[in-house]
Amino acid sequence: QGVLLTGLGTFAMVQERFHGEEEVYVVRRPVFQLDWDTLCLQEFTFPSVVIPGNIKIKPLNYRQLSRVTSFPQYVVEDCVQETILLYSLQLRDGQCLPFVFKAIGVLCCKDDVLCMRFYPSCITGLESKAGRIALLHT
């Protein structure tokens, strides 16, 4: 399953097969696909990530976030959208600040390359059996 953050991109979990010396591993790992049409950031390069078509993408569940944070849903929606807009504007102005996603990773920019760096705990949390292989390929 994947989650769409409108105006920024999509987080998803993909499964990939990797051949070891003696066996084939099926590894789950997180990916992030930027929404470049919305961001309009032509001066940046980024790793190309393709989320397979069989993965169900759902919009961010603002109702659930509202319950968890105890803020009204409209406040949560406005906060998320304003944060994404502010980050986009900072990137356009050349301010390459890290965008931290708690327990997931950091969207960062270095030398005009914008990419998502997932925390090792996020990757190994998805894949207990072949966590090291998932880490190496993320």
Walkthrough of the structure:
There is one protein chain. A hairpin with a 4-residue loop joins strand 2 and strand 3. The protein has one domain. It starts with a strand and ends with a helix. The mean pLDDT is 83. The protein is globular. It is an alpha+beta fold. The chain is 33% helix and 32% strand.
Helix and strand topology:
Layout (H helix, E strand, L loop, with lengths): L1 E4 L3 E11 L4 E11 L1 H4 L17 E3 L2 H8 L3 H20 L6 E3 L3 E6 L2 E6 L1 H7 L4 H6 L2
Parallel strand pairs: 1-4
Antiparallel strand pairs: 1-2, 2-3, 5-6, 6-7
Helix pairs in contact: 2-3
What is the helical fraction, as a range of percent?
25-40%
Can you summarize the main beta sheet? 4 strands, mixed
Order of helices and strands: EEEHEHHEEEHH
Given as residue ranges, the uncertain stretches (5+ residues, pLDDT < 50) are none
* Number of distinct beta strands: 7
**Amino- and carboxy-terminal Cα gap:** 17 Å
Widest sheet: strand ordering: 3-2-1-4
Outline, from the CA principal axes? Answer: globular
> Mean of the pLDDT scores?
83
Integer-rounded radius of gyration: 16 Å
Beta percentage is 25-35%
Structural class: alpha+beta
Number of helices: 5
Q: How many structural domains are formed by the residues?
A: 1
Can I get a quick summary?
The protein is α+β, with helices and mostly antiparallel strands and 138 residues long. The protein has helices at residues 36-39, 62-69, 73-92, 120-126, 131-136; strands spanning 2-5, 9-19, 24-34, 57-59, 99-101, 105-110, 113-118.
Keywords:
138 residues; alpha+beta; four-stranded mixed sheet; three-stranded antiparallel sheet; 5 helices; globular
